[in-house]
Specification:
Layout: E1 4-9, E2 19-22, E3 29-35, E4 39-42, E5 50-55, E6 60-62, E7 71-73, E8 79-81, E9 90-95, E10 101-110, E11 116-119, E12 130-131, E13 139-144, E14 157-168, E15 175-176, H1 177-181, E16 194-200, E17 214-217, E18 229-232, E19 242-246, E20 249-251, H2 253-257, E21 264-266, E22 274-277, E23 282-287, E24 290-296, H3 301-314, H4 324-335, H5 341-354, E25 360-365
Parallel strand pairs: 1-25, 2-4, 3-10, 11-16, 17-24, 17-25
Antiparallel strand pairs: 4-8, 5-6, 5-9, 7-8, 9-10, 12-13, 13-14, 14-15, 14-16, 18-22, 19-20, 19-23, 21-22, 23-24
Length: 366
């Protein structure tokens, strides 16, 4: 039997996001470049874990990470750094209750506000290698992560990859730029992270069931002063494939970078997680080809009626709950516990009610 859930919430819903999980084996030293603005989980799953850190850019040592506003120690001993800052580049030590070092993380949070964005389909080229004059013939280059999955299937889409600034000295292992430089200040337009996009088209992978869990954000209104507003796609990230649709038309990086699409603005610093809109319409976002959220930016009863008609039409399709709501609940536990207790309770009730049933899950938010 088809069951439809509409949860009408009268409070502001916290932003649901994605976090990067970094694990280092006990007794090892792990080096990692990441983008600032990311939420990062550093693992140290031992009882009575103690964290120490050293901030490279300020030669600042501290043994109390709990005093840092955006760092939280989890019950199991790991720490979460929320929206990390470039100034938090440094070394993070995890020690046991006997002060023995368990693991050591060397993390370079590269400034995402300086991100260099290019699209291969427009002939735009990434940054070229350069040589620094520091006395060791240092070579600055971009170390690329693998290409992410295509953000659409069966139809033309786009995929992206993140690149980090690295410095290499002859006969030595490359090091992320600001872990290498520390407090040394260098004026260089080359030393910044990158994001590269290219066209793609892949076949859809057959799924045993249709995952139709999504959230509806209702009655979004444009700012009267600026004539625009920002939308945030839950669970999206610069590290995950995401695509937005405006009235069922996909919004592309190519259209934005070529100047063909000026009605919206995909935020490069979030990899498209955030979208700036300038007109009333219905917007949808998909993460890893899964429908995540719909935003009604019409703000009038006629548009709301049209939106409800669309919902009813889609509800004629019977599906089986997928993993989306479970991931939403997990994200709430990690990043928004204090602000979202009520929403979390509703989500958990929804999950319990849906077990063992074939149902369509819709979360409607005003």
């Amino acid at each position: 039997m088809l069951t439809t859930w509409h949860l009408l919430l009268g409070f502001t819903v916290p932003v649901l996001g994605h976090y990067v999980s970094v694990t280092c084996p006990p007794g090892k030293v792990c080096q990692q470049a990441l983008l600032s603005g990311s939420t990062v989980l550093l693992h140290c799953n031992i009882s009575g874990a103690r964290w120490y850190h050293f901030f490279m850019q300020h030669d600042q040592w501290s043994s109390n990470v709990s005093i840092i506003p955006n760092v939280n120690v989890m019950p199991g001993g790991s720490i979460v750094i929320t929206k990390a800052l470039p100034s938090q580049t440094g070394i993070y030590y995890c020690r046991d209750k006997n002060n023995r070092q368990v693991t050591r993380y060397e993390i370079d949070f590269q400034d995402v506000s300086k991100l260099h964005l290019t699209h291969r389909g427009l002939g735009q080229r990434p940054l070229q290698n350069e040589t620094l004059i520091l006395g060791h013939k240092e070579r600055v280059f971009t170390q690329w992560e693998p290409w992410q999955d295509c953000n659409r299937c069966k139809k033309p889409g786009e995929r992206k990859r993140v690149g980090y600034c690295y410095i290499e000295v002859p006969l030595e292992k490359p090091v992320p730029c600001w872990l290498y430089l520390g407090a040394i200040k260098i004026m260089s337009n080359r030393m910044r992270p990158e994001l590269q996009v290219e066209d793609c088209q892949v076949q859809c992978v057959p799924e045993p069931s249709s995952n139709m869990n999504f959230i509806i954000f209702d009655n979004y209104r444009l700012n009267e002063g600026s004539g625009s507003t920002w939308l945030t796609c839950p669970l999206a990230s610069i590290y995950r494939p995401v695509v937005w649709e405006l009235d069922d038309r996909p919004l592309t990086w190519k259209g934005q970078l070529s100047g063909q699409d000026v009605s919206t603005f995909l935020d490069p610093s979030t990899g498209g997680q955030q979208l700036q809109i300038f007109k009333s319409a219905i917007y949808k976002c998909f993460v890893q080809q899964e429908f995540i959220a719909r935003f009604n930016a019409q703000g009038n009863q006629d548009a709301l009626g049209a939106l409800q008609d669309k919902i009813k039409a889609e509800e004629a399709l019977q599906g089986q709950p997928g993993p989306t709501l479970r991931r939403l609940a997990l994200t709430l536990l990690v990043g928004t516990v204090l602000a979202a207790a009520t929403l979390l309770l509703l989500l958990l009730r929804l999950l319990r009610a849906s077990r063992g049933k074939r149902s369509r899950q819709t979360l409607l938010v005003k």
